[in-house]
Amino acid sequence: MGKRKLETVTGGGGDVSTTTPVKKLAGILKTEKTPGSGNNNKSVTFPPPEELGQTLKLVAQGQFDEGDVSVVIGLLESLRGPSLVMWLEELQANITVLGSHKSEQMEGLVMELLKLRWADQGKAVAVAYKSFLVNLVSANTRYTRAAVQSLIGNFKGGVKESDSDVFRNTHEVLKGLLTVSPVGARDEILQQINLKFPFYKMPAYRQVCYISAVVEMSGYVADSRERVLCLLMERLVKLDAHLSRELIDEAYRARDYEGVELNNQVLALDLFMKLMFTYIYGETHVLEEYNHDKAAPVVDCFMKIFSTHVLPTFNIVHTQFIYLYLSSMSPTVCSRFLLENWRIFSNPNTPSILRQTAMSYIASFLSRATFASVSLVMTYLDRISSWALTYIRTRETQAGGFDFMYTDLNHHGPFYSACQAIFYVFAFRHTELTATEARMKTLQGMSWQSLITSHLNPLRVCLPGVVRNFSSISRGYQLAYCNSITQRNSRINLPVVGSLSQASSKGKPLLLDCFFPFDPYMLEETKEFVEGIYRPYTGEIIYDSDEEEESDDDSEEEADDTLDSGLGKRKKRERTDSYRSSVSSCGRMKRDSVGCLNDLLMQDLQPATPGFN
């Protein structure tokens, strides 16, 4: 049987932009007033043809001309409002034909039906489309993927005035699909939200629209919380990793001093963080009070994600503050976060770099979190000190001829990171830790002098700024005496032929990574979530003027444009009036020079919003 042609239907006002099969499909364009008749105040509707069912059967059998199918598709795309509702109802009445999937023509027609613009045309159209799509998927589950793809694509935003209606209607249709295909639709939704996630350089508005939609979907897609949060945190980490402190600082400078718009990626990161903070609060609180039972599933998910996505990522700047915010809500969560890091650090089967990073999280958390009590800090200082002393005693029996010049980060990296954590936390919170006689006795019992005089020589490897401040403060409390050791170390930093000392060709010692995860927060829109739980550095900055003078000759230019982290003093650089620009974790570069240690904490001493600008 040959393919049937369409012939043009004409009206009094000229050709009407539609066609019907040779068999008369009467009334394909029934209107109250045809276009051009002179009355434009009355609505014009385009009901479906009376023989639409027969036409669809011809399409299903592949007996309809492809060009004529395109004409029908073009007509459908032009339909709006009541006309689209009537067509959708008629198509639903013939859903068994549409779901038969007997020809490529029918599949092509269905694919085009899924692309119809419907979500911004009011409730009546949304209800009709939902009913049509639900019945289509019920008739043939093959269309589940195409249906979900078209719906997820609606969440990328377009026209701000109508986007809220589009999102609301799309969520309702997705819920309808889940009722008829709870497993197939769920799996497809979770797959498509990953595949269609917007590129990090897309406009911030479109990224935030999509992310907020994904967060909402996690509330009604069964068993999706963990996968959705993993996806969101993975994307957040990737975005965060592209934005160094220098880039964020320059973006705010350009906005404040040059009048340009804020960098799109910085704005996207700020809004992304705001969505995550808001989500955490909503999923952990009932009537503005923290609820343990409600929060437990969310806390479990975030703790898993920390080990798999956050901890292994080097030098991210803001993502980790989600854990500071989450931990501030309950002492139980705070203890759990610290224990998770301690578990990772104390496991000898964990890669050394992850153990060092976990210890950096412990040190920075104990130093910066205002809700970390003195007793909690003392507990961890004692735990870390005991571990380090045990490590020394074990190695002394195996060390043989090793002397204080031997500093091997490859083998003893976790030990050195533990020592640096002790020095950093004590220098940061020494005022509270030494406030009572009982605490002083506890600190004296930690035997830090044995630690720093051990053959592993931790003072040589730890960051100079941390060492200087710990040396000055501990000497005042008679807890440890470091001057003679630091002076000796400064004399052995030059390369020595045949020495076991690991020194660079320039005579600069190999140092631990300058990474303290909770260095000051820089994003302005979400700063309010962190300000109340964050402790700025309020102590005195100690630095070695002789050391700085010696390093000026070979690293002055390098230091001028390097942001650092630690307890020390930042070298003078241009635009020192910017409070925002200081804090950092050695930028994005791993460097082994003393020049890397210019101070982040100088920002904490600035008069305006200390520690956050």
Q: Low-confidence segments, ≥5 residues, pLDDT <50?
A: 1-42, 496-509, 547-566, 568-613
Large-scale geometry:
elongated
Total beta-strand segments: 4
> Which range does the strand content fall in?
under 5%
- Radius of gyration using CA atoms only: 33 Å
Class inferred from helices and paired strands: mainly alpha
Ends distance = 77 Å
- Biggest sheet descriptor: 2 strands, antiparallel
How many separate helices? 26
Mean pLDDT: 79
Explained architecture:
The protein has 613 residues and is mainly alpha-helical. Helix content is 57%, strand content 3%. It is built from 26 helices and 4 strands. The strands form 2 sheets. The protein has a two-stranded antiparallel sheet. Strands 3-4 form a two-stranded antiparallel ribbon. A hairpin with a 2-residue loop joins strand 3 and strand 4. Helix 2 runs parallel beside helix 5, helix 17 runs parallel beside helix 19 and helix 19 crosses helix 23. The N and C termini lie far apart (77 Å).
